[in-house]
């Protein structure tokens, strides 16, 4: 349901003030409900402390139910907006989002679209009452990976709900989280909520490709208290759909591509000289890279996450995870963990050959052989040291090693701030009481990379819970359990006031 900004009115603002003024009983109309539902809701009396904890789940559920039709309409529009590389649809989509926010009461001067090359970033300031406090950034991206309708079972750019799932490009990565975050700004504004600390939505437009808009955002908004990223972290469900654990992404590995090049004089293939063959030299170098394992590493985040994974699983791998967490660096445990491709990245830097390009004719000796080696670098390890290690392992000066552009971004692990961890855990526990909340390090790169590099601590806190490999993000027939939409609305609406009051 859409309410005009006027419906928010000053009575809502007074309600928020009452919520904030401690110790006395708060008795009044439903503090966060639109006019219509007010008429039907019983009057509630809550102590301020309970009210601050955002209310009973009942109040939360009903306000979320009110917000659902508007949210789903926005999500439908968002999925239809083909914000893929090459179609240049992000600026129009950003303008549409800006319009929604302005009609909810955000001043035009607080909503800014920043054109960046063919895309755009959108920035929305939610002003706080205490201007001396640094803002909290809320990060999401507006673009999606491209999708070929011919390969999909349904139109990828049409939101479809079937058998408890939402289907469409971006429902998992990450238009649902984007829209529920925007809708939460809209709801809080209508309700008259005034945070103590300013919140700034920083929405990028090319996270899936160049991240030029992310770089621009990080350049402008590096003086922030911390950043919450809706595109990382999240909860895991088991096969029966029960919650296993929730991960707050507090670190990610750095991404670097190294180009290995060997050149040789070439010549007629009927007159070979194996000792000068560029392809043989490159193949030998790649063999050496493949056989090398970078040193075992750990940090507070990986130890906490391996400990939790070890507890929630069984078998030799789980045993090794528990052992590694208890005795960081344990070589035997590290070897068992490293043997599993899903977890090797949690205990060391990894480098792997991903592309080859060599020779110029079937009947000529190669003049050139190139390979790409892709590395995922452990936080705290420099790109230069990885390059030096590759050179040492290859041990052949004929193999030239260079870092491919764009320059890799070194991204330090973020310190685990107790109040952020506690606020996220409390919010998750409203939905799934008792589920374990642990920090984690991801091996992929997100927008947080540039903000961490600029000195802003970043926490990936996607509200979504899903089974492993069930959402097909970036893939065919991308989907998300439909229940994640109201859950995400609950999550943001509860978490943001918790962190900014
Ligand atoms: Zn994403």
Describe the secondary-structure layout.
Layout: H1 9-20, E1 25-28, H2 35-40, E2 44-47, H3 48-52, H4 57-80, H5 90-103, E3 111-116, E4 119-126, E5 136-141, E6 160-162, E7 165-167, H6 175-190, E8 199-204, H7 212-220, E9 226-229, E10 234-237, E11 243-252, E12 254-263, E13 267-268, H8 278-291, H9 300-312, H10 316-326, H11 331-338, E14 350-358, E15 364-365, E16 368-377, H12 383-394, E17 400-403, H13 418-431, E18 436-442, H14 448-453, E19 458-460, E20 465-466, E21 479-481, H15 484-500
Parallel strand pairs: 5-8, 5-9, 9-19, 10-20, 11-18
Antiparallel strand pairs: 1-2, 3-4, 4-8, 6-7, 7-21, 10-11, 12-16, 12-17, 13-15, 14-16
Helix pairs in contact: 4-6, 4-15, 6-15, 9-10, 10-11, 13-15
The structure holds zinc ion (ZN).
The site of zinc ion has 5 residues, from loops.
What key phrases describe this protein's structure?
alpha/beta, binds zinc ion, Aminopeptidase, 501 residues, 2 domains
Describe the fold and architecture.
The protein has helices at residues 9-20, 35-40, 48-52, 57-80, 90-103, 175-190, 212-220, 278-291, 300-312, 316-326, 331-338, 383-394, 418-431, 448-453, 484-500; strands at residues 25-28, 44-47, 111-116, 119-126, 136-141, 160-162, 165-167, 199-204, 226-229, 234-237, 243-252, 254-263, 267-268, 350-358, 364-365, 368-377, 400-403, 436-442, 458-460, 465-466, 479-481. The chain is α/β, with parallel strands linked by helices and 501 residues long. It folds into two domains: 5-251 and 412-500, Zn peptidases (Aminopeptidase, 3-Layer(aba) Sandwich); 253-403, 2-Layer Sandwich (Alpha-Beta Plaits), CATH 3.30.70. The radius of gyration is 25 Å and the shape is globular. The structure holds zinc ion. Zinc ion is lined by residues 141, 173-174, 207, 231.
């Amino acid at each position: 349901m859409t309410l005009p900004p006027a419906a928010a009115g000053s009575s809502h603002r007074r309600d928020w003030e009452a919520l904030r003024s401690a110790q006395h009983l708060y008795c009044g109309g439903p503090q966060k409900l639109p006019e219509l539902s007010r008429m039907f809701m019983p009057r509630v009396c809550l102590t301020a402390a309970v009210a601050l904890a955002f209310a009973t789940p009942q109040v939360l559920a009903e306000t979320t139910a009110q917000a659902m039709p508007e949210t789903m309409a926005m999500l439908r529009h968002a999925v239809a907006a083909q914000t893929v590389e090459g179609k240049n649809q992000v600026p129009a989509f950003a303008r549409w989002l800006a319009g929604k926010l302005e009609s909810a009461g955000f001043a035009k001067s607080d909503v800014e679209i920043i054109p960046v090359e063919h895309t755009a970033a959108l920035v929305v300031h939610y002003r706080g009452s205490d201007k001396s406090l640094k803002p909290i950034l809320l990060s999401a991206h507006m673009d999606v990976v491209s999708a070929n309708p011919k390969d999909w079972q349904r139109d990828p750019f049409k939101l479809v709900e079937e058998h408890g799932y939402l289907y469409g490009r971006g429902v998992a990565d990450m238009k649902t989280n984007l829209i529920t975050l925007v809708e939460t700004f809209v709801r809080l504004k209508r309700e008259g909520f005034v945070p103590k600390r300013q919140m700034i939505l920083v929405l990028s437009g090319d996270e899936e490709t160049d991240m030029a808009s992310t770089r621009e955002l990080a350049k402008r908004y590096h003086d922030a208290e911390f950043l919450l990223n809706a595109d990382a972290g999240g909860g895991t469900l088991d096969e029966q759909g029960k919650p296993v654990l929730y991960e707050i992404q507090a670190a990610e590995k750095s991404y670097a591509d190294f180009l290995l090049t060997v050149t040789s004089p070439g010549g007629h293939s009927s007159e070979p000289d194996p000792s000068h063959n560029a392809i043989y030299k490159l193949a030998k170098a790649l063999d050496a890279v493949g056989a090398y394992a970078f040193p075992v590493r750990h940090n507070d985040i990986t130890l906490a996450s391996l400990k939790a994974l070890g507890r929630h699983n069984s078998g030799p791998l789980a045993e090794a995870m528990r052992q590694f967490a208890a005795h960081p660096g344990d070589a035997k445990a590290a070897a068992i963990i490293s043997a599993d491709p899903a977890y090797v990245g949690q205990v060391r830097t990894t480098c792997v050959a991903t592309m080859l390009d060599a020779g110029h004719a079937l009947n000529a000796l190669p003049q050139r052989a190139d390979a790409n080696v892709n590395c995922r670098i452990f936080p705290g390890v420099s790109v230069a040291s990885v390059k030096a290690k590759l050179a040492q392992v290859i041990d052949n000066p004929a193999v030239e090693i260079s870092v491919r552009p764009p320059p890799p971004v070194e991204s330090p692990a973020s310190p685990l701030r107790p109040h952020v961890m506690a606020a996220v855990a409390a919010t998750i526990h409203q939905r799934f009481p008792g589920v374990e909340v642990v920090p984690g390090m991801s091996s992929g790169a997100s927008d947080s990379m540039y903000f961490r590099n600029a000195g802003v601590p970043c926490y990936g806190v996607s509200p979504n819970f899903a089974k492993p490999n069930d959402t097909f993000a970036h893939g065919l027939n991308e989907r998300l359990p439909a229940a994640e939409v109201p859950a995400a609305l609950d999550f943001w609406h509860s978490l943001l006031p918790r962190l900014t009051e």
